[in-house]
Amino acid sequence: MTEAEIPQTENYTVEAILGKGGMGVVYLAFDKRLNRKVAIKCIRHNRANENWVEAVTEEARLLAQINHRNIVHIYDLIDWQGSPALVMEYLQGRTLLDIFRSDELMSGELDLATRLDWLRQIAEGLACAHAKGIIHRDLKAENIMITDEGTVKIMDFGIARHQAQPLHANIHDSQVLPGEFIGSPAALSPEQAMGDRLTTASDIFSFGILAYCLLCGHHPFGDPKNADLVLQGIIYRPPMPVQFLECLGIPDEDAQTLGAEIIACLNKAPGMRPAASALAFTQTIPNKEDYTAMPVPPQNSRGLALTISAILVTATAGLIWLAGQQPEPRRNVYVALPTFTGTDMAEYITEATPEFLRNGIIDALLIDDRHAVIQYDNASKLEEPSQLGLASGANEVLKLTFECKKYWCDGRMARYSGPEWHKTSGDAFSIDLRNGSDSFSAVQWHTVKSGLILNDRHIDNARDPSREYFSLLTEFRKTRYLSGESIKILIDEILTYPSFTPNYHLLVKVATRNFQINNNSGDLKIALELIESNKAELPTSTYLKLIGQCQSALKFYREAEASAEKLLQFGSVFDARLIEADLAIEQGNYQHALDTYTSLIDYAPSENGFYGIAYSAYILGDIALTKRALNSALTLNPNSIPANSLLGSLQLSDGEYTSAIENFNKIVEIIPDEPTLNNLATAYLLSGNRAEAKKQFEKAAQLAPNNPTILYNLGELELLAGNQNNAQIFFEKAIKGLRSLEQSSDASIAIRALSLLGRTEEAKNVLTTTEKNFSGIPDYLFSEAIYYTTIGQPDLAQEKIEMLIALGYTKDWFRFPWYGADCNKAINAQNDHLCSAPINLEGDE
Predict the structure, then answer these.
(1) pLDDT at res. 654
(2) Which of these, 785, 791, 841, lies nearest to 813 by C-alpha position?
(3) In the UniProt record, does the keyword Ligase occur (predicted)?
């Protein structure tokens, strides 16, 4: 039976379809027993599964707990073609959305008294629901019905939930995919948009949006048709200043009370919002009779647009934002796209470059809560700052211009202040377009340094926190390392200036680097704790990016994925994809990492991005791509430790031991880190200098005593010297220190150590489990060759060695006894008979 056939039920005569949704249909029906019209809400026949049956039943249970004139009444729960259906009161009237879309909203036709009366009724209905512990969760204009008699009815509790229920007790929650949210985007609270646990305060935020729209004539966070823009505003930006429609004629004293109430409802912190029962709309706002509508001047559509712009521009500083407090002046800032002029710069600037750098300015501005960053979609049609300001509703416009010679650009920020649009120019600074990440940082930090931001309550007038920051940044850029004393200074700076975001970025970079080098998570855990404890001081996207980076580095994969999903939901695609790429590396999904880093480089070239490509390509065996990406990374930063380290590794495989030793020694002079010492030791070993190799391996072990790779390499040296017992001890320690077989390096060490210990069945189990993920990776090929030699399958060992030689590894890598006599066959294939001679285990150093 189709909906068009209008099915009938025993006690009701169904007359027509009132409305349809994705999951349900609402019918107009006549109650034959009580002689009245009713509305019957049922599930679409093809959607009547167990989940939605439970959802309708849950809605009935919640509505049955409420008896209030401003909430739609439920009469019955009936069986409808084998599924439950709600019988509710039939309402005749218009939804608030219908009114928002009409001319009434912007004119005096809909007087102030009526609007306030509607808000009072909504607040009273919410207060009743909240008193029962019920959260509506989708309080939006289309769910508010204004009956022909003027009574307000809150409708559609289909996704409502009792506050005492577990987070996923409502069936709608359990069907939401990661990164999605419950409710309609333009009416969400910040905690809804972030997927956090909800309280009744969530409905208060949605109520604040309704009140703002009804009295100001527009959404507080931008155009509702642009869901991404609105979501960013809800989570990230303060609302636009409250400017009531002129046609309403609200007296100043009442305007202050109303404005304070709306802003309190729109507070980002749920605990700071008023309860529904305490809203001024239910207590202190005069009754409908106390207001009369003001005469309305005639307006055409063009005049209407200008009126809206004027409202946004002429924000009154006298509005009381929180009861009893005078706010600091808030600047409504529009950030224009940066412009570039000059010569030979085309190959360094992509279509995304201006938007990318503008985001650096915006990120810095939002450190300071005195700024509301205005979004305006039609800015490309306008050129003059005064035009941009008037059209966007901003009272300040920032414009960044660059004069470039190839990749080197000199920039200057200009600030235009309304209403006269006087220009103030900032200091000049420079960026290098070859490094998108550093260019972004330079723009961001210049905005910080320029004095455009930094709220006075966060700084000591005697000292600018950016000075210490730039000193520490310079140290880190030279060496990609900070001393323990410098890290302590950085942490102290964060504690002193918790809203100065560049310090957090630097700490996460330093802590991640230390963790990768020394396997010491202490600094990362401190960074995580500082970020969490100062969450309220940070812009939401910055907080999520920093937290996600820490979680990824610490291998908190599920948490990092959740942070990336929230960044995507927020609209920070670049930062979410960066975490996604880092996670792919950590989880051994190297092809996905390579694809993701490549897409990011197209948007914003950076040393870290190129290194990510190089490392992924190296693991995947694409040595040519690895070298190209390394050259790009080293062009951006010749002192890049990870890039130089990987380059040295390639030199090792090519047999360029002298160059590799020189390269690694340069790095060790800057920072004697464990990976570089390990590589340096390997270079000495392959060159025949076992004594120096052992010395460098031992230095690496002092820095990272539990590192499996170092322990295994020391075991090999002991085996070469004939010290079987010592070798066994090191191999056992290496196995004990393994963190996860999801990493190719850990899986490779496990197979080698187990094989050389004679635990071949265990080695086989590891091989069987991991071979699919890491087949073809050089480290893994070495391990397979050792395993097959150990179990007496020389043909398979030979196959792996031939693959390594084809990848460019020289004969020196196969001099060692754990490859057995079969290295002879492999190298013979390359017309080299070096392995045919017996190996002297003692060695001649």
Answers:
(1) 83
(2) 785
(3) no
Contact of 249 with 294, CB cutoff 8 Å: yes
Tell me the chain's radius of gyration from C-alpha atoms.
33
The domains of the chain, with CATH numbers, are 1-90 (3.30.200.20), 93-327 (1.10.510.10), 330-455 (3.40.50.10610), 706-845 (1.25.40)
423 contacts 401 by C-beta, under 8 angstroms: no
Mean pLDDT of 432-458: 62
Name the token pair of 76: 């019955």
DSSP for residue 293: P
Q: What angle do CA 669, 673, 676 make, to 5 degrees?
A: 80
CA 154 to chain CA centroid, nearest Å: 34
Q: How far apart are CA 129 and CA 132, in angstroms?
A: 5
The torsion of the CA quartet 743, 748, 751, 756, rounded to 10 degrees, works out to -140
Q: Which two tokens stand for residue 58?
A: 């849950």
> Any known ligand binding at 41?
yes
pLDDT at 825 exceeding the cut of 70 = no
Torsion sign across C-alpha atoms 292, 294, 295, 300: negative
513 SS3 class: helix
Which residues, 6 or more positions from 423, have their beta carbon under 8 angstroms from its beta carbon? 385, 414, 415, 416
**For 596-645, how does the pLDDT look when each residue is reduced to its tens digit (9 = 90+)?**
998 888 766 777 889 999 999 988 888 889 999 998 888 877 777 778 88
The DSSP bridge pattern shows strands 396-405 and 339-343 to be parallel
Residue 641 near residue 667, CB atoms below 8 Å: yes
> Cα 797–803–807 angle (5° rounding)?
145
User: What span, in angstroms and rounded, lies between the C-alpha atoms of 843 and 278?
Assistant: 86
Q: What is the mean pLDDT of residues 713-718?
A: 91
Q: Which amino acid is at 691?
A: A
Q: Give the per-residue pLDDT at 370.
A: 58
Element housing 63 (H / E)? helix 50-64
Q: Are strands 331-335 and 339-343 parallel, antiparallel or unpaired?
A: unpaired
203 with 158: CB under 8 angstroms? no
Name residue, tokens 């520490």. Answer: 472
Q: What is the DSSP letter of 238?
A: P
Q: Which amino acid is at 807?
A: L
What does the alpha-carbon distance between residue 386 and residue 188 come to, in Å, rounded to a whole number? Answer: 33
Which parts of 655-777 fold into alpha helices (H)?
657-670, 674-686, 690-703, 708-720, 724-736, 744-756, 760-774
The phi-psi region of residue 758 (left if phi > 0; otherwise alpha if psi is between -120 and 50; otherwise beta) is left
Which tokens sit at 9? Answer: 């039920």
- How far is the C-alpha of 530 from the C-alpha of 621, rounded, in Å? 39
CB 756 within 8 A of CB 731: yes
Distances (CA, A) of 67 to 26, 64, 70, 91, 116: 21, 7, 9, 16, 23
User: What three-state secondary structure class fits 761?
Assistant: helix
- Between CA 461 and CA 250 the distance in angstroms is 41
CA distance 617 to 614: 5
Give the pLDDT confidence of 797-813 residue by residue, as tens digits: 889 988 888 887 887 88
Output the DSSP codes for 47-108: G--HHHHHHHHHHHHHHHT---TTB--EEEEEEETTEEEEEEE---EEEHHHHHTSGGGGST
Judge whether 150 and 113 are in contact, CB under 8 Å.
Answer: no
Beta bridge partners of 432: 408
Question: Token digits for 660?
Answer: 């590799």
Task: Give the torsion sign (CA, 503, 506, 510, 511).
Answer: positive
Contacts of 107 (CB under 8 A, 6+ apart): 247, 296, 299
Spacing of C-alpha 635 from chain mean position: 29
Could you tell me which of 752, 782, 437, 778 has the C-alpha nearest to residue 617?
A: 778
The Cα–Cα gap between 561 and 700 comes to: 33
Under the banding of pLDDT at 50, 70 and 90, the label for residue 489 is very high
| 4 has pLDDT over 70 | no
How confident is residue 783, by pLDDT bands cut at 50, 70 and 90? very high
